[in-house]
Amino acid sequence: DVLPTSESADPVVRVEHLAKRFRRRDGSTVDAIDDVSFDVQAGDLVVLLGPSGCGKTTLLRSIAGLETPDDGVISFGDRVQFSPAEGINVPPERRGVSMVFQSYALWPHMTAFRNVAYPLESRGPGRRNKAETAKRVRRALGLVGIPELEQQYAAQMSGGQQQRVALARALVSNDALVLFDEPLSNVDAKVREQLRVELLSLQRELGFAAIFVTHDQSEAMQLGTRIAVLNKGRIVQLASPLEVYTKPANQYVAKFVGTMNEVLGTVTATKGETAEVKTDLGVLTGRIGGGVDIGDHVAAMWRPESATLSTDEPVAANRLAGRVKASLFLGAATEQVITVDGREVRVQVPGAAVLPGGSDVWIEISEADLLVLPAEDA
Ligand code: ATP
């Protein structure tokens, strides 16, 4: 019930060397969480991002206490919640966290009011009087913008409305930590966008820390104060959205976060922070984004929006000759699909710039915008 102050020494959540292995029916095993450590500070919204099966949900459920890991330590503030070495495993209802699920998990034949009141009534029987409960429920319904739905049954609501009720239920206990498991993936695009904005402002206003699971990279960028990118049960990068976007730790992160063009090649020279890469499209020079050395097999990568297009051959070192395959007007920008030596490259230019198919163009990429990362085997 008590929010930590920013001066408190302990993070809201600390996860240390967490591990969880599942045994499948056929006897094989999968490391759903593989030696994961991270902290969530007051005011943080940490997004767990990764493709299906990378372990996001298992990690979140372990923090909530709904899953029992094999090893590691989970603490909230100065209280240990899970530590097999110390014989500690606090049950979910006593961890003081709230959770919002993809499926809403509301009681369909209860009103919004009763659904939201439930955590207050089940957690502290007799602790709060009716008037106090009603006040808090109404405040929570007000916060999520649906005070008028108080007496509606959940079954009679739209997906977006149900998710607002679920959010109100998560906020009503005023917990320092709220966990979100893909809460917006069942609502339509417009409502999803609106709920993201509201979630962010609520989080800032109320000051709770949050962990938010998604496989949607643009959602992760919009919401996260930090993004933990997961691959096969491991955190492969934990950084701000800007850093993950501009300095992806490896080829996996670069490909997963946003669109990336990529040409494979071999490093022929390095100089300070730059590397020269021999590719079958010619020599490209870029910024070293990971440990690479001469002779290494690498990927030279760049974003569609960081290249420029011209009809005259540029003098820049990194230039590729191509032909327009399609020109897709997106509204604020136009995406050019360009064929370069048989492969497809995407370049995004601002505004309406539809080019005739078949036009010959030059693509230019600055050294700073070309990222050289170790190539991971497919
Ligand atoms: P999704 O987005 O599809 O939910 P995820 O990233 O949340 O994926 P998890 O659901 O955490 O991934 O699953 C991680 C791995 O653990 C997967 O390989 C999954 O098949 C496996 N797994 C999860 N739960 C169990 C279980 N109860 N029994 C066996 N294997 C499981």
TrEMBL record:
<dbReference type="Pfam" id="PF08402">
    <property type="entry name" value="TOBE_2"/>
</dbReference>
<dbReference type="GO" id="GO:0016887">
    <property type="term" value="F:ATP hydrolysis activity"/>
</dbReference>
<dbReference type="GO" id="GO:0015418">
    <property type="term" value="F:ABC-type quaternary ammonium compound transporting activity"/>
</dbReference>
<keyword id="KW-0813">Transport</keyword>
<dbReference type="InterPro" id="IPR027417">
    <property type="entry name" value="P-loop_NTPase"/>
</dbReference>
<dbReference type="InterPro" id="IPR008995">
    <property type="entry name" value="Mo/tungstate-bd_C_term_dom"/>
</dbReference>
<keyword id="KW-1278">Translocase</keyword>
<dbReference type="GO" id="GO:0055052">
    <property type="term" value="C:ATP-binding cassette (ABC) transporter complex, substrate-binding subunit-containing"/>
</dbReference>
<keyword id="KW-0472">Membrane</keyword>
<keyword id="KW-0067">ATP-binding</keyword>
<dbReference type="GO" id="GO:0005524">
    <property type="term" value="F:ATP binding"/>
</dbReference>
<dbReference type="InterPro" id="IPR003439">
    <property type="entry name" value="ABC_transporter-like_ATP-bd"/>
</dbReference>
<keyword id="KW-0547">Nucleotide-binding</keyword>
<dbReference type="Pfam" id="PF00005">
    <property type="entry name" value="ABC_tran"/>
</dbReference>
<dbReference type="InterPro" id="IPR047641">
    <property type="entry name" value="ABC_transpr_MalK/UgpC-like"/>
</dbReference>
<keyword id="KW-1003">Cell membrane</keyword>
<dbReference type="InterPro" id="IPR003593">
    <property type="entry name" value="AAA+_ATPase"/>
</dbReference>
<dbReference type="InterPro" id="IPR017871">
    <property type="entry name" value="ABC_transporter-like_CS"/>
</dbReference>
<protein>
    <recommendedName>
        <fullName>ABC-type quaternary amine transporter</fullName>
        <ecNumber>7.6.2.9</ecNumber>
    </recommendedName>
</protein>
<dbReference type="InterPro" id="IPR013611">
    <property type="entry name" value="Transp-assoc_OB_typ2"/>
</dbReference>
<feature type="domain" description="ABC transporter">
    <location>
        <begin position="13"/>
        <end position="257"/>
    </location>
</feature>
